[in-house]
Amino acid sequence: MPSYTPPLRDMxxxxxxxxxxxxxxxxxxxxxxxxxxxxxxxxxEAGKFATDVIFPLNISGDSEGCTLDPVTHAVTTPKGxxxxxxxxxxxxWPALSxxxxxxxxxxxxxxxQCFYEMMNSANQAWTMYPGLTHGAYAALxxxxxxxxxxxxxxxxxxxxxxxxxxxTEPHCGTDLGLMRSKAEPQADxxxxxxxxxxxxxxxxxxxADNIIHLVLARLPDAPPGIKGVSLFIVPKFLVxxxxxxxxxxxxxxxxxxxxxxxxxxxxxxxxxxxxxxxMVGQPNKGMQGMFVMMNAARLGVGxxxxxxxxxxxxxxxxxxxxxxxxxxxSGPKAKDKPADPIIVHPDVRKMLLTAKAYAEGGRALAxxxxxxxxxxxxxxxxxxxxxxxxxxSLLTPIVKAFLTDNGWQATMMCQQVYGGHGFIKEWGMEQxxxxxxxxxxxxxxxxxxxxxxxxxxxxxxxxxxxxxFGKLVGRLVEEEGVNEKMAEFVTPIAVLGExxxxxxxxxxxxxxxxxxxxxxxxxDYLRVAGHLVFGYFFARMAQVALREIAAGNTDPFYAAKLxxxxxxxxxxxxxxxxxxxTARAGAKVLMDTELALA
Length: 598
Hints:
Layout: H1 8-18, H2 21-26, H3 36-54, H4 58-64, E1 67-68, E2 75-76, H5 81-90, H6 109-143, H7 146-158, E3 161-166, E4 182-185, E5 191-201, E6 210-217, E7 230-235, E8 237-239, E9 245-248, E10 251-256, E11 267-280, H8 286-322, H9 346-378, H10 382-417, H11 429-438, H12 446-458, H13 464-480, H14 487-513, H15 516-550, H16 556-572, H17 575-584, H18 588-591
Parallel strand pairs: 3-6
Antiparallel strand pairs: 1-2, 4-5, 5-11, 6-7, 7-11, 8-9, 10-11
Helix pairs in contact: 1-9, 3-6, 6-7, 6-8, 6-9, 8-9, 8-10, 8-11, 9-10, 9-15, 9-16, 10-11, 10-12, 10-15, 12-15, 13-14, 13-15, 14-15, 15-16, 15-17
């Protein structure tokens, strides 16, 4: 059986020592009183919930899965899931970072970010049930009418009701312009919505009293393509004027997908048979609200892989210390045993350190983005809000794609550490691998994220936002340029910062002549950008560690952080050279292949 210990020390290091998040909060009136002790105390209790309540349900939930009653269309979640959700609601956890106007606790988003990392480590499939609600809440909070907010948000904040996002249809996934679901206006101002949605995570379950579906559909006179899409609230149970539940709406689960992973989450085929819905926002402007959900989901999916990377690493590390196999190439290390623990072997250490580095780099990026999101909404300075939103827009596809690619690599490596035992269910590692695989696919495949980063976020504004991130790198390089102890950390990012400017210009010029050049380079480009971002954060973490050591701090945490940073720059960061070379190979070797692909 696997185990899990919340990485509270590393979270505290990133939040309080590297980013000093409470300094940012002091500039935001509603967070001005939030201090380090409050954040730490909440996360300590959050870690107990993740470890004690939902982690024990991970393997059993995967084995049992969800069941659908074909007559009633009701879905039953695995044993213990509903009871765990009741504890989640009773503890006030759904309200952690929500608006106090609707019953939220109003804590900073970074607290929710760290809580969800721990829950994803503990049980990704369970965590998706409340997790999808955050995106639906955000969309309604931003684009809903006052009446819609009063009707739905308090119940969603309390956790009494959950939410979903219903986009994908059998014939269209990312290309939502092909969507066919229809919305017929009614005399009372509501709409009757008909269509079929697939791959709807947490689309039907027995854990909450109501499920609030946010559904994309077309009005009868809608223009073709993405410009003709509207967004609707379609509740499982209609809501009476007094807030009580009314009649069962004609939206139901027509089937459950049989999947490779996240088996304990109900991935539903949703049928809308003239279901009653109300419009969110303006007609044919549904993507405005849906993008709020999608961006929240993309950050959340990156966090899912971060959680899996951490828990897989912890268990592989423990196994490598205990499992004895062969002798060290440099001579016996455990002379009292017939063989040495496998952690003495260089390649085992490489796999472990890869997972550790990807977890720690991913954690820094995720926390940084949660602070940007907070500032984009609540900072009193309009320029800070705008700059934060712009930087977050740049980093969101990196969070989604880079963290999930890394999570897939890391969980596979951690499984490999176990050898044959990693292939066996009881150890838990094969489930981490299976669960991690979906994260590269849903909420826009990682190729889509790469195209978004390179095409929309960088080339469309001539790299202006990328240059702003480059200024962060430049300031750190300038600050530490004469510090010999920091050279091994700042020199690589200084060099890559210069290279990526030329690299971007080159791809942009080729793309102007042939758009396929952008498509051919995008996936490699995103990983280069991801390493620049990780490199910057590892350099900042090394900076803090070196200062603490120089000040006489003997906590081994800091020396360990430096060792991880050195490994990252020596063994993982150099991938950028290969990636830039393969990106420069261009589109011809991909597109001029009719015979090869005949």
